[in-house]
Amino acid sequence: MNLQPVGDRVLVRPLTEQEVTASGIVLPDTVDREKKAEGEVLAVGDGEDVKKLNLTVGATVLFGKYAGDDIEYNDEDLKFLKHDEILAVVKK
Questions:
Q1: Whole-structure pTM value
Q2: For the chain, how many structural domains are there in total?
Q3: Burial (Cβ within 10 Å: 0-12, 13-18, ≥19) of residue 76
Q4: Residue 51: helix, strand or coil by DSSP?
Q5: Which of 38, 51, 50 is nearest to 12 (CA)?
Q6: In CATH, what number is assigned to the domain containing residue 77?
Q7: Is residue 1 assigned to a domain?
Q8: Is 22 a domain residue?
């Protein structure tokens, strides 16, 4: 990844989830659907507050639905989050 967050920021790839009806029909993304607030950590900044979270590249985190700054980089939707916008780390 050529993007490196600075300070107390984290670069995340939001995870998308296809919605499937009971009969097996896959519903397309629409404006009405809520964004999923889960993502994979791609890079972590070097700020003191973000170091306290002990995040590693590849970890899955939960964040607020409208948190962070959305960007598009290399035809991929990514999100920059501040350390305090991360709600939890998903343990596997």
A1: 0.78
A2: 1
A3: exposed
A4: helix
A5: 38
A6: 2.30.33.40
A7: no
A8: no
Q: What is the pLDDT of residues 54-82, one digit of tens each?
A: 999 999 999 988 899 999 999 999 999 99
Residue 68 is assigned to a structural domain of this protein: yes
Average pLDDT, the chain: 84
Three-class SS state of 57: coil
Task: Show Cβ contacts of residue 81 under 8 Å, excluding neighbours closer than 6 positions.
Answer: 9, 10, 11, 12, 61, 63, 67, 68
d(CA 86, CA 65): 11
How far does Cα 42 stand from its chain's mean position?
9
- List the domain range (segments joined by +) for residue 50: 9-17+34-90
Lowest-confidence pick of 31-35, 39-43, 47-51, 54-58 = 31-35
